[in-house]
Write a structure and sequence with these properties.
This protein is mainly alpha-helical. It is rod-shaped. The model has no long low-confidence stretch (mean pLDDT about 90).
């Protein structure tokens, strides 16, 4: 009976280190998987950040062009108003001259 118990104890003591080794290997494998996932996530984050920067640059360029176009529209409207004012003055002179001849 002592021999059977001793044999069981020997088997248990030899399987425990194997189980511990298996557990360590499993944890190492899982750690590697998590590291790889984190690296992939970091790369995606960098890609998103680069795309975001490109988008911001394009937006800034579009806003600058929009501002330029608005300035051109305002200038054109001011010129049109000046022309219409001159035209109104010419019409006034025309009608005054026409009334003077009647």
């Amino acid at each position: 009976m002592w021999t059977a118990y001793h044999s069981h104890e020997t088997i248990a003591s030899t399987t425990q280190p194997l189980q511990l080794d298996d557990a360590v290997e499993q944890v190492e494998n899982e750690t590697d998987v998590h590291r790889q996932a984190l690296e992939e996530q970091r790369m995606r984050t960098l890609e998103i950040a680069e795309h975001d920067q490109q988008s911001r640059t394009l937006l800034a360029q579009a806003l600058s062009k929009n501002t330029q176009l608005i300035q051109e529209v305002v200038t054109t409207q001011a010129n049109l108003l000046a022309v219409m004012t001159d035209l109104a003055a010419i019409k006034k002179q025309y009608y005054q001259a026409k009334l003077a001849t009647v």
